[in-house]
Amino acid sequence: MQTDHHLGRSWRSRWERHPGVRTGSRLTLGERAADRTRLVMGSWPFVITFLVVLAVWITGNGRHGFDPYPYILLNLVLSCLAGLQASVLLIAGRRSDQVASELAMHDYQTNKSTAVAIASLRSEVADLAAQLARVEALLKTRL
Questions:
Q1: CA-atom Rg of the chain in angstroms
Q2: I need a surface site. Which of 29, 45, 69, 95 has the fewest CB within 10 A?
Q3: Is the pLDDT score of 24 beyond 80?
Q4: C-alpha angle 113/116/117, rounded to 5°?
Q5: What 3 state SS string does the chain have?
Q6: pLDDT of 78-107, one tens digit each?
Q7: Do residues 44 and 50 lie in contact, with contact meaning Cβ atoms separated by under 8 Å?
Q8: Mean pLDDT within 4-27
Q9: What's the rounded Cα separation, in Å, for the pair 135 and 128?
Q10: b/e map of 84-118 (b: 16 or more CB within 10 Å)?
Q11: pLDDT (tens digit, 9 = 90+) per residue, 34-48?
Q12: Following CA atoms 12, 88, 84, 63 in sequence, which dihedral angle do they give, to the nearest 10 degrees?
């Protein structure tokens, strides 16, 4: 299991342990990247790190740094990041939809096999009830 040793927390989702969801080597490189991106970008450590980087950039540049106020380079970087991040998050969202579909399909297959098992059990119980009725009738005739 992958963990972030700095925070001591697992980066894996609970659905990754579900038997109906493909994981590990059964995923493509793009699917693994989408899962990881969704988990990292959608976390508080990412948001806090991003805010710290912005604060350091702004305080470090002020009026005399390599990107003085109004921070043209910072605006360019943030615009590029926003455009890229939107695409990456759409890819990660599509992967989440795929996982939800796999979970639903697993649940459907489980429900189908359970329905077959229940039908079989009902048939066996009905057979046992019929046999019991015959035994009771036989015992009544002998008494």
A1: 30
A2: 29
A3: no
A4: 85
A5: CCEECCCCEECCCHHHHCCCCCCHHHCCHHHHHHHHHHHHHCCHHHHHHHHHHHHHHHHHHCCCCCCCCCCHHHHHHHHHHHHHHHHHHHHHHHHHHHHHHHHHHHHHHHHHHHHHHHHHHHHHHHHHHHHHHHHHHHHHHHC
A6: 999 888 888 888 888 887 788 888 888 888
A7: no
A8: 59
A9: 10
A10: eeeebeebbeebeeebeeeeeeeeeeeeeeeeeee
A11: 778 877 877 889 889
A12: -20
pLDDT of residue 1: 40
Query: 């991040």: which residue's tokens?
Result: 85
